[in-house]
Protein 1
Amino acid sequence: MEHELRVAAYDSADAQLLTDEVQLEYVRRYGSEGGDINPIDAAEFVPPVGQFFVVYVDGVPAAMGGWRRHGDDAEIRRMYVRPQFQRRGLAREVLDMIESTAREAGFARLILETGLEQPEAIELYRSAGYTDIPAFGFYAEEELSVHLGKAL
């Protein structure tokens, strides 16, 4: 498996292809008609206020993730690995890149919101040292939300 992690624009065709797929996955898991309705602007992922990444396997977009400024913290957004590329360490690779670039940008903490219907995501983050934090942001009042953070 030849793979490459690249900096990408959030509004690039490949990032949007993966975003469309993850939205369908949210609908499947949560039964929502609209997927994740938290508004995202591509400009939020442009340095120095954010950065976005896509992993390619043999030239095919396979995984993505990025971070954006959220107050004094950096917030992880849009972590996703296509099903056919899961269990190959790609999510960990994207997470490591997110952590290192957010740290380089001067952030002291990364935060994120995920959901109870995404146990594999919760497992990934907890295994990487993320712990429970007070609820924040768009999904702060959602009972299925899990809010995690990690000091960089």
Protein 2
Amino acid sequence: MKPVLIIRTGRAPNAIRARHGDFPHWFRLGARLPMQQLQVVDVQAGETLPSPNAVAGALITGSAAMVTERAAWSERTAAWIRGAMDVELPLFGVCYGHQLMAHALGGRVDYLPGGREIGTHAIEKLATAASDPLASLLPESFRAHTTHEQSVLETPPGSVVLARSTRDPHQLLRYGPCALSTQFHPEFSADVMRAYIQRKRADMRREGSDPWNSYREVAATPVARGFLQRFARHHGLSHGARNR
């Protein structure tokens, strides 16, 4: 039985991690993966990724780093993503993982015009999702948690944009039959979202937004969370990793 890989590209801030746990824990709960099924590789710390053929699928986390920094560990992970695409490994990237997948496959990442997007926001499903095996099951609009400064500004050739928000036109991308990514955070709980808003409240005020209003508008996001679970089930990751 092959493990499900969590590619750790960063860590939650210390105060948030102490109270709510860290990225691998959130992804494990969000995708409903058993602990014994997981392999976590911290690429930011320099750990080496296994061959794509040695794992059943991979989830790529968020990070406080920026894709535009082109750090050596990030570029190595981008190369690994291209290899994983060649063997049609199930891939799901979130936030930094979303941007890194787009960058790896020929898109362009940079700062989101108008400043950061943070809080619980409405995500609009696009008409392109109608034929998608997973996105077609989403409602026309659903809530999701977001916190990011950079974004996918130009999508890779051949990718399909499946959903958008008011601020970001590329909230959900499909790159191939087994590869998706979201700018929004399906692994976040409402408590984690509130903790990020509290942490970023000074930055939000400086940028002209109201952190208290964003805090009050935080709500549960069962559809977004369910999308991560659906991906795991669809690719046989949440009921024991299949052999590939």
Protein 3
Amino acid sequence: MTQPLSHEKKVKLWDFPVRLFHWALVAAIVTAWWTNQQVMIDIHAIAGYSVLSLVAFRIIWGFVGSSNARFTSFLVGPRRVLGYVSKVPKGTMAELTYAGHNPAGGWMVAVLLLLVGVQALSGLFASEDTFLFFDGPLVAYASSDVARTMNWIHHNNINLIYAAVGLHVFAAFFYLVVKRENLITAMITGVRKVPAELVGIFAKIRFASPVLGVGILVLCGLLVWGGVTLARG
């Protein structure tokens, strides 16, 4: 059972670019799913291009962004991941608190980025023969075997995304209900409440410029849109 908390203080946890990426990706994935159900293929394609732009941004931000947004800060070895997971059922906040993604959550971020990135890339090769009467911008440059493989990936990889998203949402609500840690609000506001004795953990975060982050995101969007436009001739 979680131990009673001491006096809490607010600390800054997530920078604006990370929060913008997170919720924009949620919106893009939901839009892609809904428009696929409604056979609104043009909007579905735009959602896919948005996902690709967001993934490209997050990869770049994983190297040049705020210290707790960098891959080196949260992608750790299997021993640390297993050690963390073993502490979750009865661990205290002091044992489970990190200035960013915890070891298990960090790998969930990487897996989700990989899966949605693959989904967006495979959609670029979608063929009208098998996918909603729509030709992706790169299908004309691929052989029939490549297009067929990409279509298969696009249709089946989505099931892995559903599973990963479901696990991610379950973990967020588990921490909210069982561990009394509101990670969802922290990703909205960028601020988290922690016991006073844990404030020092967050003092080590070095935040990158939000203007730089937004600029990189806009650039990624322009590059994807420009590439799609050129590919379509």
Protein 4
Amino acid sequence: MEKKRIPLKEQGKKWFIAPAITWLMLFTLAPLIYTVYLSFHGSRFLKVTRFVGLKNFVNVLTDYRFWGAFRVTIIFVLGGLALSVGLGLLFALLFNRQIKGVQVFRTLSTMPLFTAPVALGYIFMIIFYENGGPINNFLTTIISKQVPWLSNPNWAVFSILIADTWQWTPFAFLVLLASLQSVPKDLYEAASLDSASSWDIFKHITFPLISSALGTVIILRVVEAFKVFDLPFALTNGGPGLATRTLTFNVYTNGLRDQNLGAASATAIVLLVIVLIVSALFFKRYGSNYE
């Protein structure tokens, strides 16, 4: 029986996706598989020792530093999500109208997105500098008091949240503004004829129509917040004490500082499982919005 020949055009299409598949295999699947392998082995830097089973996971989950980092990570996820998405939605609603200079503001608002997180951390270190920094100098002039932005555990967490919000609010703003501008204007006109209040219009028209975009922003921000490392590293180096050390910071300290790749890999796998669970719950609850 003569084999069916695949047209050259179809063969060319397959080769077009070859680089993407190669990239996925080399830089996503292969590191993930190796990380899972390391998590079940005792290992030091560049040297894998014996198989230890679940010992790395037990050590990680019984370590007080893990649970402290878990608490800090959850604070960053919830706080960063509320601030960046809340402010982004607020700005989108404010600028979803004909305002002079809105195009310039929209362009300038993208600048924080292109700032390297490490560079951003050092910039805010200067801003929050306690002895001579611009914010404390202003507070000293106004109320004769200074805030221990980076030396107090609570203020240090809040400082990182401010920096994170400054960077990611433009992302939420631009996505939600684009979604708002796609809402048909005749719906608002019909609602205004019915004498509907602004809240009723937002609740019954605006919010349902932008819920898909809002959900996309939320899940992307949640995943990104779980991975936060650059800002705590540059701004506070995980301090004071362990106050701003996140789960990804634990991966860094276990893997590179202590050269315990087994513990670092186990922590990374636990973090991955947490993110997968959160994502699965999100799509189970709101997946119908994307159908």
